[in-house]
Design goal:
This protein has 8 helices and 15 strands. With 321 residues, it is an alpha+beta fold.
């Protein structure tokens, strides 16, 4: 569905949008559903950790702003009027757009910008259950919390890649693998998370974004020739209720590579939210986190590389003949 079509489509029609046939086939696969259930458990755990940290940072920022305001009031009471005006003019505005004396945005809309660069400062994804839970020990939020008087930036949504998984044999289980044979079934998961916490004085990002339609794409690069590979582009879908969406993507492994020339692929996941209203953040992004589920045994005395999160890296895999 194009943007032009979307603008003339009713909200009811959008809510009734269905995945394309290839995605429906993947969703009907019990093996795919099993992996999606594990991802769902991890998202629930991540959300609880994010809510805990966001509340803690908000309360800490509010308390420090109040202390700072109270400490300045006696000093201002002793100053002449012209000196108080000069002091107010000199009070700094932070890089996040917050006036430190008032605890309010200095520029309208800055508090709602959900850019990828700010997301890492709020919280990192938690994992629960299966391999995702074992990838990194969950620490206390205070350990990684910056000391700040600023209200933490509000994270609207995030996108992460999980996989790939390959079918070990016809009808067999899906196993983590990045080196696969041509013709094998290989599945990658695009995971979209929307913030269920309420915005200041308003609904949550999950509620605001629920009626919108999103388009996930996997752009691939054949590194042998440094040319575009197959594009993974399932049909646009509506977010609807809840706060996460998981889209399985099948990675084509044909054609057969030439003998002795396995084909390395890079896959970059992107998302675009269509038909966004005026005044909302720029709803587009790319997956800056990749959960790599395979275990790489130790080599030359080095420890094993356990399943875990890879930062700022595209999904990488190799197809051999």
């Amino acid at each position: 569905m194009s943007i032009t079509d979307l603008r003339t489509t009713t909200q009811r029609q959008i809510a009734e949008m269905q995945p394309d046939p290839a995605t429906r086939e993947l969703l009907a696969d019990d093996r795919v559903q099993a992996i999606m259930r594990e991802i769902e458990g991890s998202l629930d755990h991540y959300t609880m950790r994010y809510q805990e940290k966001y509340r803690m940072l908000s309360e800490r920022a509010a308390a420090r702003m109040q202390e700072s305001t109270q400490a300045r009031q006696p000093m201002r009471a002793q100053q002449p009027m012209h000196a108080q005006q000069a002091t107010r003019m000199q009070e700094p505005v932070s890089a996040g757009g917050y006036h430190e004396s008032l605890g309010a945005p200095a520029y309208p809309g800055m508090a709602q910008q959900g850019r990828q660069g700010e997301q890492a400062r709020i919280a990192e994804p938690g994992r629960a259950g299966g391999q995702i839970a074992g990838s990194r020990a969950a620490g206390m939020p205070e350990v990684t919390t910056p000391i700040t008087q600023l209200q933490p930036p509000y994270l609207w949504f995030d996108l992460m890649a999980v996989g790939p998984y390959r079918e070990t044999f016809q009808g067999g289980p899906l196993q983590p693998a990045r080196v696969v044979r041509f013709g094998e079934k290989v599945v990658l998961f695009a995971v979209l998370w929307r913030n269920p916490m309420p915005l200041p004085g308003g609904p949550s990002a999950a509620d605001v974004m629920a009626p919108y339609v999103f388009q996930v794409r996997g752009v691939t690069v054949d590194l042998n020739t440094v040319t575009p590979g197959p594009v993974l582009a399932p049909a646009p879908e509506a977010f609807n209720a809840g706060f996460f969406n998981i889209v399985p993507l099948q990675i084509p492994t044909a054609p057969q590579p030439a003998d002795g020339q396995p084909r390395p692929l890079e896959i970059h996941l992107t998302v675009d939210i269509l038909g966004v209203g005026v005044g909302l953040p720029p709803f587009a992004g790319f997956a800056s986190r990749w959960f790599r589920p395979d275990l790489q045994p130790g080599f030359l005395g080095q420890p094993d590389i356990l399943p875990g999160i890879v930062e700022e890296s595209p999904v990488r895999m190799l197809i051999y003949a």
